[in-house]
Amino acid sequence: MPARLDVCAGAAPGAELPGRADGFSFRLLGLVGLEDPVRPGVPDAIAECRSAGIRVVLITGDAPGTARAIARHIGLRADPVITGVELQALDDAALRECAR
Q1: What's the CA gap between 62 and 36, in Å, rounded?
Q2: Which fold has domain 38-100?
Q3: What are the angstrom distances between the C-alpha of 90 and each of 9, 33, 58, 84, 85?
Q4: Residue 80's pLDDT is what?
Q5: Distances (CA, A) of 72 to 38, 66, 67, 76, 79
Q6: For residue range 68-98, what is the model confidence (pLDDT) as tens digits?
Q7: pLDDT digit string, tens, across residues 32-53
Q8: Residue 29: pLDDT above 70?
Q9: Averaged over 18-35, what is the pLDDT?
Q10: Domain-wise residue ranges, the chain
């Protein structure tokens, strides 16, 4: 899925570096585009698993919006999406229910 990375140069107003990014004055230098495409056979493999009665889920470290886009692209339901923080907050019973 495509991603965009802004490349900037930052200048600090004093001799010491600010403790936070908003303490810098940034100047945009350019953009970098990245893409990690889904392998061509993935949507067909998922469809084949489904036809064999296998439930397929997507587990990724990507951001929720990226996970949804990937899921739609490969033929999976795009919701629900559960973040790592939300997953860690579940007790055992809620985790079992969520996994269903």
Answers
A1: 12
A2: Rossmann fold (3.40.50)
A3: 41, 36, 18, 10, 9
A4: 87
A5: 11, 10, 9, 6, 10
A6: 999 999 999 888 898 889 989 999 999 888 8
A7: 887 888 999 999 999 999 999 9
A8: yes
A9: 84
A10: 1-36, 38-100
Q: What is the dihedral of CA 11, 13, 15, 18, to 10 degrees?
A: -80
Give me the phi and psi of 89, to 5 degrees please: -80, -10
- Higher-pLDDT residue of 31, 41: 41
DSSP 22-72: GGSEEEEEEEEEEE-PPPTTHHHHHHHHHHTT-------SS-HHHHHHHHH
User: Which run of H or of E encompasses 94?
Assistant: helix 92-99
66: nearest Cα among 41, 90, 38 = 38
- Between the alpha carbon of residue 19 and those of residues 9, 11, 15, 94, the distances in Å are 16, 13, 13, 39
Class of residue 29 by CB neighbours under 10 A (exposed 0-12, middle 13-18, buried 19+): exposed
- Structure tokens belonging to residue 97: 């229910």
